[in-house]
Amino acid sequence: MPSNWTPTTSAPDSLQATLQQHFTQTRARTLRLFADVNADVFRLQANPDFSPVGWHLGHIGFTEGLWLLEQAAGHPPLFPEYRRLFAADGLPKAERQHLPSFTEICEYLHHIRAQIWDYLSVAPLASQAWLWYWLAQHESQHCETISWVLQLHRQQTQTPSTLSLASKPADWPLPSQIESAPRQDAAPQLQNMVYVEGGEFFCGHEGLNALDNEKAAHWVNVDPFWIDRFPVTQADYQQFIDAGGYRQSRYWSEEGWRWLQANPVSRPAHWLESHGDAYPVCGVSWYEAEAYARFMGKRLPTEREWEKAASWQSDPPEGGAGKAMGKAWKRVYPWGQDAPTSEHCNYGTLQGGTTPVDAFPQGQSAYGCYDMLGNVWEWTQTWFHPYPNFQPYPYKGYSLAYFDQAHRVLKGGSWATQVPVLRCAFRNWYEPRIRIHFAGFRCAYS
C-alpha cells in the first residue's frame, strides 16, 4: 500500500489539492479505527494516563476548528458547548468520559471539515501551509494514541492483570533470595551490529512538514559507534529475564532500581507467548531498556547516533537522490526518498501488530539496519531537548513544556504510526517510567 504523503512547494492550486487529499486520507484512516468500537469502549478510560478514544476523536475536530477557522480565518467557534470538553486543557482526563455518541461526534467533525474546505479555497498557503501539515500530523499522532488505548482495552478483556505495573509477580524474590546472576562479557558480540563511522552529520528536518522540535536542522559531530542491526527481540530479552536481570541491581541505574522496587515487574508489559522469538520486545520502560543494554555490555544509542544510522548515506546514491550534504546524503526514510509502502516497513496498523524484525529487507538503512521505521518505537539515551534556534509553533506548549529533563526521546515509529509522522527525523518523547506497548529499543556500543 503506497503512500503519497509528500510535502510540496508547488503552485497554490496544486498545493490546495494536495492538502485536501492528505486531510481526506488522514480522516479515513482515523475513522477506520472505530469500525468495531462499542459505546462503552468509546467512552471509558483504559488507563488513568490516557483519555477515552472518543475524546481523542472529538479533540481532533476541535483542534482543526481552533487553528484554521478561529485563529486563521477569524470565525466564531462552532459548537462552543464542546469547547471545554475537547480542549486539551479543558478537563482532567478522568472527567472526559461523559461524551456525545460516536454519531454525534462524527457530525461535529463533518461540520468543521465542511467549513475548512471553504477556507482552503482562499487560505494564504504560501505562508500557512505548515499549519495544515501540522494538523494532519496532529491527527495522525492521535490515531496512534487511539490504537494504543484500544489495545489496552483488548488486553484488559483478554488477559489477566499480572502484567500490570501495580501487580506484584508471584516469583518476586525477597532481598535474601536474590542470587548473583552472571555478567555478560565486558566486550559484547558484534556480529549482529553494524559499524557507523564518525564525523559530521546533519541532524533534524526542514520543510513544510517539519515540527517545531525538529528545527532548526543543524550539523553535529558523532563519534564512531556500533549499533544493533535489528531491534532487541523477545529471544534476546529472554536471556536477561533468565539470568535474573530483574533481580540484579548491578544492571540498573540508581533511579531505575528505585522504579523497579516501586513497580516490581519481572517481564515486559507486552509479550507474545508463542512464536514470538523473532519479534521485537515491547512494553518496556526506558529503565528496563537501559538495564538490558548494560547486561549485554552495551548501552542505548543517543538520538544523534540513531538518526545517523537510520538516515545517513556516505556514498552517493544512484541517480543522486536525497539531499546532498557535501560528500554525504541525508535520507528522509532509511531506504531513501520514496514514500513508505508495505514492502518497506510495518506501519499504519496494516499488520495489526508487530512483525519479525527481519521481515522488511527492502526497508534497510544505508548501513544495513532493519526496522528503523515502524514496528516499535525505540528508546534512546537522549533527554528531549530543543535544537539550536528553536522556535515554538503553533503554540508554546506543543514541545516547549516537555524540555524538562524528564522525558526521553524515542525514534522510528511503531506498527500503528501513520504515514504523516513516519520519517527518520521525527521525535517522540515519554517519561522513562512509562511502559509503552508500542516501545522497544536497540543497543549501541562504542
Keywords:
single chain; Four Helix Bundle (Hemerythrin (Met), subunit A); four-stranded mixed beta sheet; paralog of FGE (formylglycine-generating enzyme); 12 strands; alpha+beta
Summarize the structure in words:
With 446 residues, this protein is α+β, with helices and mostly antiparallel strands. The chain folds into 2 domains: 12-158, Four Helix Bundle (Hemerythrin (Met), subunit A) (Up-down Bundle), CATH 1.20.120; 175-445, paralog of FGE (formylglycine-generating enzyme). The protein is 31% helix and 10% strand. The protein is built from 10 helices and 12 strands. A 4-stranded mixed beta sheet has the order 10-9-8-11. The two termini are 38 Å apart.
- Assign the CATH class of the largest domain: Alpha Beta
Relevant CATH superfamily of the largest domain: paralog of FGE (formylglycine-generating enzyme)
- Work out the strand percent: 5-15%
* Tally of DSSP β-strands: 12
Q: How are the strands of the largest sheet arranged?
A: 10-9-8-11
Helix content: 25-40%
Low-confidence stretches: 159-186
Q: What's the architecture of the largest domain, going by CATH? A: Alpha-Beta Complex
Order of helices and strands: HHHHHHEEEEHHHHEEEEEEEE
Q: In this structure, how is the largest beta sheet organized?
A: 4 strands, mixed
N- to C-terminal separation?
38 Å
- The structural class is alpha+beta
Report mean pLDDT, rounded to a whole number: 89
Helix count, per DSSP? 10
Determine the CATH topology of the largest domain: paralog of FGE (formylglycine-generating enzyme)
Dominant shape: globular
Cα-atom radius of gyration: 22 Å
- Work out the count of structural domains: 2
